[in-house]
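Dear support,

I submitted the protein below through the web form. The confirmation email said the job was done, but the results page showed an empty box. After a refresh the structure appeared. I'm attaching both so you can tell me whether what I see now is the final result or a partial one.
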Amino acid sequence: MNKLMTFSNITLREYSQEVLDRSWEWLNDPEIKELTLTPDLDKEVQQAWFQSLQKKKDYYIRSVWYKDKPIGVMGIKHLTDKDGETFGYLGEKEYWGKTIGVQGLQYMIDYAKSIKLESLYAIVLKENINSYKLMRRLGFEKEKEIDENAIVMRLYLFPKEN
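What the results page shows now:
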């Protein structure tokens, strides 16, 4: 699915070296790093990961753009034939709270349906109330606690058969 998805000047595009470089900055921001549960990053490891993306069958990633500016990332990782873990972040904080996350996550849900996944799940930091509300808004339910800091939320994409 390579088409651009447009949401009032928002597009989802291929994940590029330019966005990888911006992600380095975004994911090293202490607030974003904490909210996304991002471990310490190493530029060489990050570059090797980027180079491996073309061969990965269990990873779908897109960059989020506003006009001509990259502002974030959305994707699905750990893809199987049944489910995958959706993730995303807006690195440009001035775009937080502007429904871009809702639109990007809806795109990921639509993509997951198009490849016939049964469900999507997300790992959400308990203190990240905005992400929790976003997930609930789009139908994700709390599935389980991982530890004292994080939960798994899941969305079943198709009605379960009895």
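Response: this is the final, complete result; the empty box was a page-load delay. The beta strands are 5-7, 10-14, 59-66, 69-77, 83-90, 119-125, 141-145, 150-156.
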